[in-house]
Write a structure and sequence with these properties.
This is Phosphoribosylglycinamide formyltransferase. Residues 4-181 form the Formyl transferase N-terminal domain. The protein is of the alpha/beta class. It has a domain at 1-100: Formyl transferase, N-terminal domain (Rossmann fold), CATH 3.40.50.170. Helices cover 38% and strands 22% of the residues. The protein is built from seven helices and seven strands.
Length: 197
């Protein structure tokens, strides 16, 4: 059974989908804890499913490195096989990446390497593209630059707003995430091999 810590910053829709999937006794993974860098609404999903939560507020530490050390300490208490950044809006410091890699993955609302960074959906609209997408990657020390696990295109429709487009990307992100967790748990995806490639 694959044990998972999920880190969020917002509403946690991917987290909720993962929690719902793991209610199935046949699903080979379990979320053991959910962490956040702020008082995130998505922590309520964890509480509803009886999953422990922790918060490591970025603003409570004098540097990103010290915040990262505190975050890593919290994650390590749960001894997860896999840590998922899902809507986690902070770059984790290199020490955290090095400690958890390659068992540290991230969902991203664009077809990487297109539109990395925190405003991927807005950037896609500003660029006037007809397609964007969703990606799942192994986290490295770049900005959304790690090895791609899976990705899928999403059409940009005429008159799309940032909110409307993001709502169409989210279900694709959720599906990619759940499929990848299944494949990692079942040995069909080898994160170590991906990270070496």
């Amino acid at each position: 059974m694959l044990s998972i810590v999920v880190l969020i910053s917002g509403g946690g829709s991917n987290l909720r989908a993962l929690l719902e999937a793991s209610e199935d006794a046949e699903f080979p993974a379990r979320v053991v804890a959910v962490g956040a860098d702020r008082d995130a609404d998505g922590l309520e999903h964890a509480e509803r499913f009886g999953i422990p939560t922790f918060t490591v507020p970025f603003t409570s530490y004098p540097s990103r490195e010290e915040w990262g050390d505190a975050l890593l300490e919290q994650i390590r208490q749960w001894e997860p096989d896999l840590t998922i950044l899902s809507g986690f809006m902070r770059l984790v410091p290199p020490r955290v990446v090095e400690a958890l890699s390659p068992w540290l993955i991230n969902t991203h609302p664009a077809y990487l390497p297109e539109f990395p960074g925190a405003h991927a959906v807005r950037d896609a609209l500003a660029a006037g593209v007809t397609q964007t997408g969703a990606s799942l990657i192994v986290v490295d020390n770049g900005v959304d630059a790690g090895p791609i696990i899976s990705q899928e295109r999403v059409e940009v429709e005429p008159g799309d707003t940032e909110a409307a487009l993001h709502e169409r990307i989210k279900p694709v992100e959720r599906r990619l995430l759940i499929d990848a967790v299944l494949d990692i748990a079942n040995g069909h995806i080898d994160l170590e091999e991906l990270a070496r490639a």
